[in-house]
Amino acid sequence: MLISNDDYWAMMIDSSIEVTLAIDSDDETTIYAIFNRPAKVYGDDLRMVSPDPTLTCRSTDIENIKQGSTVKVNVNDTLYTTRITKADGTGITVLELKK
């Protein structure tokens, strides 16, 4: 049995934060998304998965975001640029961000 996009996101909402998206400094939109900071390397045993932070969100919430768009993430009011957008085909998109 497949679950709907809304049911999937309802399970993830507890891990999400409120994020303000300022798409190329135009309209600001507030959504809920999961912000992942880069992994840190601790010795030789742990490898870094991604050097850049990511933002996991519903694809319908970010339809206007393209690669290179400026995204304001509401974590210490830090501004990020969208480096890569990866839609997974299930209604979830991961944005790779850079400062």
Main attributes of the structure:
6-stranded antiparallel sheet, 99 residues, mainly beta, Thrombin, subunit H, 8% helix
Description:
The protein has 99 residues and is mainly β. It has a single domain (5-39, 49-98), classed as Thrombin, subunit H (Beta Barrel), CATH 2.40.10. The chain has 1 helix and 6 strands, in the order H-E-E-E-E-E-E. It has one helix at residues 5-12; strands at residues 17-22, 28-36, 54-58, 70-73, 78-87, 92-98. The protein has a 6-stranded antiparallel β-sheet with strand order 1-2-3-6-5-4, covered by helices on one side. The longest helix is centred in the first third of the chain and has 8 residues, at 5-12. It is globular, with a radius of gyration of 14 Å. The protein starts with a helix and ends with a strand.
* Low-pLDDT residue intervals, each spanning 5 or more residues: none
Tally of alpha and pi helices: 1
CATH architecture descriptor name: Beta Barrel
Mean pLDDT: 76
Into how many domains do the coordinates divide?
A: 1
The chain-level structural class is mainly beta
